[in-house]
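job 3f2a | input accepted
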Amino acid sequence: MKKTIVLFVSLILVLSLAACGQKSKEDVVKSLNDKVSDMKSYKAKAKMTLKMGEDPQVYDVEIWYKNPDFYRVKLKNENKDQSQMILRNKEGVYVLTPALNKSFHFQSDWPKNSSQAYLYESIVKDIMEDSDASFKATEKHYVFDTKTRYQNNKMLPTQEITFNKKDLTPVTVKIKDPDQNVLVKVDFSKVTFNSSFNKDAFDMQKNMTGAQLGKTVAADGGTGEFTVKYPSNTAGATLVAENEMKVEDGSRFILTYEGARNYTMIVEKADVMETTLASRQMLGDPVDLGFTIGALSDKSVTWTYEGADYTIASNNMTKEELVEVARSVQGTSIK
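job 3f2a | predicted structure (335 res):
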C-alpha cells in the first residue's frame, strides 16, 4: 500500500512538472515577437503549392532578408522553366523577370501592406494582429489558426501556421478558402537566422545579371507568335469584342468585356529588353496572381506569362475583382 501511494505521488509530480513546462499561447506569441525584434537577417528555402487555377502550380522559393527592409524573394516554377524575383532595396521594390531582361519598379510598402506566406516576420505579424487566433501545442510543434491580411483577396481569409518548438522556425503555412480548403501551402525546408550577405546581395542589376544563365531568348523563340488565354472568371461580364492589331513585333489583341463589370484585356508578345538599366516605373504594388507576380494599381493589373504581356483595365472594378479575373487567365488558348 505504501509503495502504491509513493508511485501515485511520483506520477502527480511528473504530470505537474510537465504542465509547468508547457508554454501558453501568450508565451509563444511573445517569444515569436522577440525573435523578430532581435532578428538581423535570415535565409530560407521553401516549396509553395498553389491550387487557384486549373492545375496546381509548384514553386521553389528562396528568401533572403536583411534588417530593416531589404528583401530578395526568388520564385521558380520547375515545370514551366520560368522564374521571377521580388527585390526590395533602398531604391524601392522591383519585380524582375530575368528571361526577358525585364524589371518593374514600384514605390511600394511591400511586403508590409499584406500577408506574405513565405516571409517569417509577416506570418508572425498575422498572429500578433489576430487576438482571436487559436493555438495548440503538439509534441514537436506550435500551431496557430489565424486570419490573413490579404487586402485584395477575400477568398483566402484564414491560415494555419506551424512552427518548430525547438527554435521557432516555420514548418508550414496553409492558406484556406472560406470552406477550409487549402489553396496555398508553403513547406519550409531550411531556415537560417542571422545569415551574412555580400554588399551587393540586394542590388537590382547584380541580381538580374546573376539570374541570366546562358543566352537570353524570347519565350516564343523569336517567332512573334504566342498563346492568348481567356479568363475563366469573367466577373459577370461577357466578351463582346475581340480585335487584333498588327504591331511592329507581331500582334496585339484587345478583348472587351461588358456586363456587371466592364473591362478591357490587352495581350501582346512579351519582348526581351535590350538593357536592364531602365526599369518600367509602376504605380501600385506587386501582386501574387498564383502563377506569376503582377503589378496592381487602382484601375489595372499587369503581368507577363508564357511569352505574353497582359493588362486588364477597368473604371468600375475593385482591386479584388481585378485580381480575381487575372488569376483565372490560365485557360484554353484563343489563338
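job 3f2a | The chain has five helices and 19 strands.
job 3f2a | closed
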